[in-house]
Design brief:
heterodimer, A: two-stranded parallel sheet, about 40% helix, elongated, B: 3 helices
């Protein structure tokens, strides 16, 4: 069968049946939207003997990051296909996607011998969840 | 105040989530195991244990101060 010669058109190739497998790339990097805002104010005025203990949010954030990286490492080592590993990672990120903001203000005025303790529970929960996910993954791979 | 020794999300729930994510992506843990050398397993085990320890320390420090 000979086809009649037609004038060349740029989109001709779209007409054939075999070329309809357009691949839509997912945005390569899904932003990991763990946002944590921690604003803590402790104001002490005209007081003495005040003992303050607060959570080290910075340490918590880096610990959180460390666990996330660990999950990514485990997945990329075990899943040979890097695209597939990426997809799985995205799914895990969705589980632990959290937005948190922690604002606390403490004002002590004209007091003596006061003990203040503030805790950032939100970030502690998130770290706990992430490490649980990591442990569950490695447990399913008989690593632990 | 929450108790750090008790997981905030039940273990079973996390296991289920991990399992369903693997299933959704057509991943069989049985096959993934084959991709790991003993050496890699050892390194990963140490990494996880280390992170667990750090989390425990972080939690206990928080708990200590919240008493």
């Amino acid at each position: 069968m000979t086809k009649q010669l037609k004038e060349w058109r740029a989109l001709d190739h779209c007409d054939t049946d075999s070329d309809d497998n357009a691949v839509v790339e997912q945005e390569a990097v899904q932003h990991d939207s763990i946002k944590q805002v921690s604003n803590e104010w402790i104001i002490i005025k005209d007081s003495e003997g005040i003992d303050v203990t607060t959570t080290d949010t910075q340490a918590a954030v880096s610990l959180q990051l460390g666990i996330q990286v660990a999950i990514a490492v485990v997945l990329s080592i075990t899943i040979g296909d890097s695209d597939q590993a990426k997809h799985v990672m995205q799914d895990f990120n969705q589980v632990s996607k959290t937005r948190q903001s922690n604002r606390q203000k403490t004002i002590i005025e004209g007091s003596r011998n006061v003990e203040i303790t503030t805790t950032d529970t939100d970030i502690a929960v998130n770290i706990q969840l992430l490490v649980q996910i990591l442990v569950a993954i490695v447990a399913s791979l008989d690593i632990l | 105040m929450s108790d750090a020794s008790k997981p905030m999300v039940p273990e079973k729930v996390v296991e289920l989530a991990v399992d369903s994510i693997f299933k959704k992506n057509g991943i069989k843990p049985e096959e993934l195991k084959k991709n790991l050398t003993d050496e890699q397993k050892k390194v990963l085990r140490e990494m996880v244990e280390d992170l667990k320890k750090q989390v425990d320390q972080f939690n206990s420090r928080n708990n200590e101060t919240s008493e």
